[in-house]
Amino acid sequence: MLCLFAALSVMVQLSTGLPPRINQTHLLPSSLQIRRLGLKFQGSTFTLEGFPFQIIAGTMHYFRVPREYWTDRLQKLKACGFNTLTTHVPWNLHEPIRGQYHFTGNLDLETFISMASQLDIWVILCPGPYIGSDLDLGGLPSWLLRDAKMKLRTTYRGFTKAMNLYFDKLIPKIAKLQYFQRGPIIAVQVENEYGSYNLDRKYMSYVKKALVTRGIKVMLMTADNGADLKKGHLRNELATVHMMNIQRKTYEDLSSMQGSSPILMTVYTAASADMWGLLRQTSDPQVLMKDVREMFSSKFSLNFHMFHGGTNFGFMAGAKTLDRYSPVVTSYDYGSLLREGGEHTPEYTVFQEFFNSVMVFSNTIKPEHKRKLVYKSLTAFHFVSLWEILPYLEQPIRSMKPISMEMLPVNGNSGQAFGYTLYETTVLSGNHLDSRGHIQDRGQVFLNEKLVGILDHTTDKLTIIKQDHQDSHLLRILVENQGRLSSGKDINLERKGLTGDVYLDNHPLRAFTIYNLEMRNNFVQRKLPMLWKSVTNNVKGPAFYLGFLRVGVNPKDTYIKLEGWNKGVVFINGRNLGRYWAIGPQQTLYLPGSWLQPGKNEIIVFEELEPGKEIQFQETPHLGY
């Protein structure tokens, strides 16, 4: 990593040691009464209201942190020595159904930004429309894909029309929180890493205009990795750089585009997201700190990504393609300075001491440590099979041919975004099932109620052996959307469920009954009278398992360990905690105390295969090795 910064001699004279301590106590959001100049740059230095200003930012996502803990995490950001928060805005969470907008509860972006301002923290906002961030479809709503001709992140009319309607709702909420309105937002990032996508040369200018015409007046910036810097740049706007693919040419490109300008390392990352079935991502703290020291010596500004990762609650996690399709795990610990549950890491203290040695901050905040609690294990469960609850669900869809999740006529014709879809059809004969790559992403195949195998990205053929002499059988395929790709040009193809024909002995299956199993809160909280039964030793999934956790008057955070369970989802009092999977690397799920209530708490586990004997709780996470 150190060689990344050696090339800086092209633009910046390296100093022989750390710069003198910079006093930024006069640059607090609460200290400036009249604001005229905003964030600008003079030569290679940022200025804020005319004073030299070095951006020391950390990324944290409000939607990955329980609202009740926002203040705690922001206090820890400030206490560590950061003066700026970077956060992204996920379109798919704010408009999950076309025309239905959500800006309350854990999606109350205005309150989150206002909390930062109250703590004297500046804000760099990334409103998208695409943000990446290892989210399903990079934070774009899946209902865009109902348009067969859709070209995401371009000036294609179907995309821009939807984006403009969304921006009409979003941008007024953030415009009033800009620096010139005495708010904390000092800069806005236009899109994200567009240079690596680069399908439409008019697109970035279009997004810029959409922001400006709606009242965005603070500094605009673009962010790309070194190799794609020029392709994602906007003329007359600041280009910032991600740590990936930085070479000597990167700084030459920066100099040719904007002369002598300050360098903001928009993404300096400790690690990256973990993926199911792969080893945990790690970093070397010593190399990390040495890089940061070099950046300070070179008068860089930086954004630590992620300062606090949080959790991919529910089904928000996306996927990557490495050698193969790889879904992102539930924990978004990300090797951050704050662990998923808000605990300090050893690196946090090292960074805190370093920042205090080079910067002067007015900071008296000492956030308290919120201890975790080990609750008593749950061993008594009731269960109901998936097949038993089907009559209690909404009316299924009937179709001669399979329909992808996105095209299902549900959710106000916005399709199904997340979760599972069950496809049923009757078969009379045949032995060899072939998906031909049309199962996205993982399909459990059942003959009547017996599991016969799994079809996924690596397996597309199964042999079906009939166990009796019935004339017809019910063939069921339970398909899980494990997360749409979060980046790359293939996001335009990311339909889920059955995306085409599945063949039995080379004949396409027909006449489907299709169930939407998105598992929203109202799905899990529905009353199922007389269906719950005590668990016996021979129970298998797919099934729901119900247990009750009793908590004292002050609920505390904990970590759930599902040893012996295989694969599924956990719900706490009707809220989706996220996925678990025995293949790891993640072995525990973070359970915020704010999701618990004094007294009895309902835990429902949807297990796809076979359940374990108990649900355990522990004080520390186990995210793999």
Question: How does the helix and strand content classify structurally?
Answer: alpha+beta
Strand order of the biggest β-sheet: 5-6-7-8-9-10-11-12
Output the radius of gyration: 26 Å
Examine the secondary-structure arrangement and name the CATH architecture of the largest domain.
Alpha-Beta Barrel
> Mind describing the biggest β-sheet?
8 strands, parallel, barrel
Q: What overall form do the CA principal axes indicate?
A: globular
Low-confidence stretches: 6-20
What count of helical segments does DSSP give?
11
Number of domains: 3
Helix content: 10-25%
Distance between the termini: 22 Å
Mean pLDDT equals: 91
Approximately how much beta-strand content do the residues carry? 25-35%
CATH fold descriptor of the largest domain: TIM Barrel
- Give the CATH superfamily of the largest domain: Glycosidases
- CATH C-level category of the largest domain: Alpha Beta
What is the number of strand segments? 36
